Amino acid sequence: MLDRLTSMKIFIKVVELGSFAAASQHLTLSPQMVAKHIEALEHHLGARLLHRTTRRQSLTETGRLYCEQCRLVLQAAERADSLAANTLGTPRGTLSVSVPVTFGRTVLLPFVHNFQKRYPEIQVHLSLTDQLIHPTMDGHEAVIRIGELETDLTVVSRPLTAYRRVICAAQTYLEKHGFPEQPEDLMRHECLVYENSGGPVTTWHFSQGSVTRPVTVSGRIISNDSSVLHSAALAGDGILVGYKQALLPDIKNKRLVRLMPRWTVPDRPMHLLYNAGPVMTPKLRVFVTELQEAFQP
């Protein structure tokens, strides 16, 4: 049985060159084999595709319509082959990734260091920002997002390990102002306030078992850069709620003291967003796979 895609290619070449002889010469096939492919298509369709004369062939009406569709079919097949080959290719090229600042500096940078050892032909372009970034509108192939996602997102989202936070302060601050024991105590303390795109975040939430308690805080230092607030906490300027992984070294070395041990700061969800398209590029595919393995929920 003859392959139909091959028969379509031969049929189109006959139409383009005007004769079986010209097509057979171009395709390095015998005229008999060319004729056999055309006859196989006509038998399959139950209709004549070409008017045959001793010198040239011309299309029937069915043949004209079928030729147009054959071109589309072959183009789609070539596109599918190209996409499949792309997924099997060597991961290479520049990968643009947007990452929240503290997570990027503290955790993702070591991950990228090891990732590039395994994939030396991938150049990772890290954009550190706490602004709300959309992976298709802002030109990034992948975005790591902290917080709840919009319900109308049209990109792929994959959950990552939660963004865990702790509350702490320097011993020098606590010696002057005392230790808060309940969330309400923070209203009488100097708090280091983070500012996002919506303004200063002055409502802090705490949980104990099934109880969640919000508290309104204030402070004289407000910044959209969490590293500034971290430095201010180390200097004894106030109480900080921040990313646990970033603060843990200073807590272990007693430069900062964890507070309110009976209360926890609720975790924030973290996701990887990307626009997969018809098929992922090799560089994005390996990045997504390795990131999910490294930061499983």
From TrEMBL:
Domain of life assignment: Bacteria
Transmembrane segments: none
One GO BP annotation of this record: DNA-templated transcription
GO MF assignments: DNA-binding transcription factor activity; sequence-specific DNA binding
Pfam families: HTH_1 (PF00126), LysR_substrate (PF03466)
Record key words, sorted: DNA-binding, Transcription, Transcription regulation
InterPro entries membership: LysR-type_TF_proteobact-type, LysR_HTH_N, LysR_subst-bd, WH-like_DNA-bd_sf, WH_DNA-bd_sf
Family note: Belongs to the LysR transcriptional regulatory family.
Protein name: LysR family transcriptional regulator
Organism per entry: Acetobacter senegalensis
Lineage of origin: Bacteria, Pseudomonadati, Pseudomonadota, Alphaproteobacteria, Acetobacterales
